[in-house]
Amino acid sequence: MELRLVFAAAIFLGSYLPLSIILLVQDLKVDLFSRPFCSTLWQMSSECELPFNNSGLSIGFALCCLACFLTTVFVIWCKQEPQSITIIESKQIPTDLINYVVPYIVSFMSLEYSQLTKVLGFTLFMMWIFWLSYKTGQVVLNPILIILGWKLYEIKYTYQNSPTERVDKALAKTEFKPAANATIDVEFIQEVIVKRD
């Protein structure tokens, strides 16, 4: 099971929304908070200044992660054509959060957007983590989805009126319970099985 690269990248970047906010806060110019509020900010007056050292990169990364997260949630919540399957076996996949913890640690090792070499190094590091997650099929292990109540399962199933057994990963808010000759309706989002209830 491989997600399409663009959708997998959106899931991956969306899962780092908290990291982008941490980096945004670390990029704040604290001394600007002592100034009075600039009422002409929306007119892009030369008197106004955004309170970030590198506003383009810090705000851009945060907005990109927010957009990817919202895209992920939107795609998961959009109704797809349901398909009936029979569950033979299911097991919850324990969430290995090490892939997500390491970049957070890196963010506290003085990553500054003003130092181009550190930003490039961090970008290469994130690309490497994404590629490993993508190739191992772990990109759907999104910690933000876990917070929203979703769990990742590996299920063995058959399609209705088909003897061929298949094994795939599935996202669900409720447990997959095998039952003899009982079918359930699921949806597929780029080869990921989604069970909503």
UniProtKB/TrEMBL annotation:
Output the superkingdom of the source species.
Answer: Bacteria
Full protein name: Uncharacterized protein
Q: Membrane spanning segments where?
A: 5-25, 59-77, 97-116, 128-150
Please provide the record's keywords in A-Z order.
Answer: Membrane, Transmembrane, Transmembrane helix
